[in-house]
Every structure is written in C-alpha cells, then in structure tokens.
Specification:
The chain has helices at about 35-45, 75-90, 145-165, 180-185, 200, 205-215, 240-255, 270-280, 290-300, 310-315, 315-325, 350-360; strands at about 10, 15, 20, 50-60, 95-100, 115-120, 140, 170-175, 220-225, 260, 280-285, 305. It contains twelve helices and twelve strands. With about 350 residues, the chain is α/β, with parallel strands linked by helices.
C-alpha cells in the first residue's frame, strides 16, 4: 500500500517519494525570459519533492502570453536553467521542464503587435491575465498546416535545450486552455483539415509533439499535462470521456512516463478511468487535502499526488505532509511578477521555524 514516502518509478525516472511539486507560474524570470538566481534558490528549497515539474516554459517568444515567464529557446535561458537543475540535483531532487505554447491565451501587446494563434478563430471570453489596463482577448488567427509543423519543431528544439540545461525529462503542457488543448477540445477546434473534426484529428497535434519529445528524450522521460474538465480559459469539449480517453490510449501505446491531470475530485472525475484505459502512471492534482492524497495513494487510484499552492508557501511540503505538520498560510501579495524574495523564497521551513521558536523562548 503506497504512502507519501513510498518510492516510485515513472518510466526512467526513479522518484524517492510520491509527492510532486506542480508547475507554478511565478513570473520571476528576466525580461528576456532567463531564469534568475532567486529562481535557483526557490527550486532548490523544494528539492525534497519526489519530482519537481518546472513552471510553464515557453518554446519561443511567439509562444508567450505573460511577461517574465521563462523560456527554453536561447543559450542564455539554457544557462539560467542549468543553475536551477544543478541546485536541485545537489539537494537530491529531480526536475522536468514543462514545455508551453499559450496559443490564443495572449494578446498583440505581448506579441509585438501580432495576432495570437490557435486551432480556429474562436475568441476567448474574459480579459488578458496581468495586463493593465484590462483588455479583452482578441479573435485568434488559425494556424496554417506549415505553421503547425514549425511549432512541432520548436517543441523538439526546446526539448533538446532542456537536455542541455540538465533537466531529467520534459512534460508537455497540453492543459488549461493553451495551444495543444485548443486543438484537442471541440469547442475551440472547428477545423476541417487533418487537425480537426474527429477525435483522431483533434489529437493529432498533441501526439505529434509527444512523438518528437520522445525522439529527444525517450518515452520514459516524457510526461503530459491535461485538464479534462476544460475549466480554464473558456474551454469545453462535447465528450471529454471520448476525447481524453482516446488521447490517453494513444499515449499508453507510446509508453510515456506519466500523465498529470488538473481535475478536482468529484463524482464525474474521469482521471482514474484514463489511468485504467491507458496503463500510464497517473499524477493527481487540484484541491487535494492531505487526506484526499493519502486515500488516492492507498487505493492505487493515483500513482503520485501533486500540490501547487501548498508548495508556494511550504518549501518542505513533503516533510510536513509526512509529519502531518501545520502548513504555512499562502500570501497572495508578491505571488506573481516581482523581483523580490518576499512571498517567494522567504517562507519558513519546519526546521527554521523550530529554531526561531527556540530562540524566542
């Protein structure tokens, strides 16, 4: 019966425990998307996790939808990430790079005046995150087939750079309404070519990218991030069970290392079914309590459990979960897009809190 401390093998990744740090956009990179010394400290603090999935990392400048998110398309970015991965490895941790193209979840003001791209010309509801003054998302431009092929190659080159940067593998960000998800789900993919219509066609882009990641890394070091609820960025699918079931069956044939779903627990959750249909190890995520996580592991409904916000405020979250210790409260000020340590690397560990308490007596 698995517990937090139980080791786990995901493909070629040998995890020391089953607590995963979820990818967390913090917008702490430079304007040129180079990881900083502060980012190195942040990730090293959290190296006791069984696996760290890096914050979403863009594969090109055209792939971006947020300021100061890191990239993996220049030598300087590789060098910055190499500092991060080395620090994590020195602490005995594992870290994979999450590769990202936002698609329509952007704005011309972030793209040097260019129109964001997507599967189809379907405008997203709402306002662009973090841009002020507020402005609505625009109608995206459908990608030409030649452009799809070019983006697949960009993913491959980013995977090569991830290897140069010392990562232990890669995870494809195919969730949360970003570009791959826009092709996969029926509400945003209205295409009538080989990338639209049937579920086989809508999954074609996802699988093509996975195939080039496998070329670079081998299947045992490739994971995929999915969001079957379609509850981010105005998404939706006419039959998530069919769409994501087909995608996972195909990923199972490729024998990838793991899949990760952003799906809260409810009667209509399908992630456990996706695990059974695919045979792919499954990392659970979203609103999990300690009790939820233990139950998923003990019942073998999930192979590992992942936490996001709790890892922001608790660098030693693994230890706290094992000991059932209290968690630090998250502070939302300075959470995203600053250059300061406050709200980023200054959360106390259990050990430092104990020292502080002893000194105050």
């Amino acid at each position: 019966m698995a517990e937090f401390t139980t080791p786990l093998i995901l493909g070629d990744l040998h995890l020391k425990n089953r607590v995963i740090m979820a990818p967390l956009t913090r917008s702490r990179a430079t304007a040129d998307r180079v990881p900083t010394a502060l980012m190195t400290e942040y990730y090293a603090q959290r190296a006791s996790a069984g696996l760290i999935i890096s914050e979403a990392t863009v594969i090109s400048e055209e792939a971006n939808g947020y300021l100061n998110t890191p990239g993996l398309f220049t030598d300087e970015q590789v060098a910055g990430w190499k500092n991060v991965t080395s620090a994590v490895h020195e602490k005995g941790g594992l870290i994979v790079a999450q590769l990202w193209h936002v698609g329509r979840v952007s704005h011309p003001d972030l793209l040097k005046g260019e129109t964001p791209v997507s599967a189809s010309a379907v405008q997203q509801a709402g306002h662009v995150s973090l841009l002020r003054p507020k402005r609505e998302y625009v109608v995206p431009r459908p990608l030409e087939i030649s452009e799809i092929h070019a983006i697949i190659e960009q993913f491959k080159q980013a995977a090569i750079r991830a290897k140069e940067a010392g990562f232990d593998g890669v995870e494809l960000h195919a969730a949360n309404g970003y570009l791959i998800d826009q092709f996969l789900q029926s509400s945003t993919n209205l295409r009538e070519d080989e990338y639209g219509g049937s579920v086989e066609n809508r999954a074609r882009f996802l699988l093509a990218v996975v195939d080039v990641l496998i070329e670079v890394w081998g299947a045992g070091r490739v994971g995929v991030h999915l969001a079957p609820r379609g509850d981010e960025h105005d998404m939706g699918d006419h039959d998530p069970r069919e769409t994501f079931g087909y995608a996972l069956e195909e990923l199972g044939k490729r024998n990838i290392a793991f899949f990760f779903t952003r799906e809260h627990l409810a009667d209509d959750s399908i992630s456990e079914e996706l695990k059974q249909r695919s045979g792919v190890p499954y990392i659970a995520n979203m609103r999990l309590t300690r009790e939820d996580a233990l139950a998923l592991l003990e019942s073998e409904q999930a192979d590992a459990v992942s936490f996001g916000k709790a890892y922001i405020s608790n660098p030693d979250l693994f230890e706290r979960l094992v000991q059932n210790a209290p968690l630090n409260e998250i502070r939302f000020e300075n959470m995203i897009g600053t250059t300061v340590a406050e709200g980023y690397t200054d959360y106390p560990s259990l050990e430092s809190a104990l020292i502080t308490d002893t000194q105050s007596v």
